[in-house]
Write a structure and sequence with these properties.
Shape: globular
Distance between the termini: 22 Å
CATH topology: UDP-N-acetylmuramoyl-L-alanine:D-glutamate ligase
CATH superfamily: Ribokinase
Number of domains: 1
Oligomer: single chain
CATH class: Alpha Beta
Largest sheet: 9 strands, mixed
Number of helices: 11
Length: 295
Amino acid sequence: MTVLVVGDLVTDVLVTHAGNIAVGSDTSARITVGGGGQAANTAAWLARAGSGVTLVAAVGGDHAGRERIAELIALGVRCTVRAHPGAVTGSVVVLSSAHERTMITDRGAALLLSPADVAAAVKAAPGATHLHLSGYPLLHAGSRAAGVAALTAAAERGLTTSVDVASADPLRRLGAEAFLDLVRGTDVLLCNSDEAEVLVGAGSPRQQAAHLTAYAGNVVIKLGPDGAVWGTPDGTMRSIAAAPVPALDPTGAGDAFAAGLLTAWCSGAGPDAALTAGTELGALAVQTLGGRPAS
């Protein structure tokens, strides 16, 4: 099984701190620099879970871009990543405590993701069975056509598809209706509770999942330490509680959850087993510093 992952590959400047940030003054923290991006993180966790995986992305023609590609290759990810001369690899400052993270983002070369490159990669990937699209390309005008091209090429090739909604605030700026039109017909739609509320309004996770099944064959709402909910258009609802673990850093936990879930589902597992696999990998991620599995 090979999963194609399309989306963002960036540099994360991870700032992990305890307690509140002292605005206008100093706050002690641990600061690390390394690879990030929702798509790249998911690809790394897919490789960790045993899936064959290819990442399709764009970086700058700079040292950071070369480092980001090398890190993924070392983790077992095949990279179809275009380096754009003169452009700067995207970067994200992640302010992280044990249970929350806030991101300050410069998308950089991620906005240069090319529809032609994406379509060619989807058509050429040997053994591909599934395409997973990070929502970030769809949320930004510069890369939206590439996200649409990924879903179109996957449909033409007969691949199953999944989309992870990605981030509540840019989703709010784009608009729920516009986003849902872009992902209509997706086999698996993943979102967290904040993103679900932007898409369909307030309600219980089961109610939100039921609304979203009008757009996708399977809807998964990630609830962090509260587990996850899976809904289908026939009204079936499954849920799972997350095992309590000591949390170090939530960065990339949702990406790890998606990777575990997709590895199981693409191998023929049903919702219960897929949710279990997702929560197990997500639990491992929150005990790991940064958005990737330890090398």
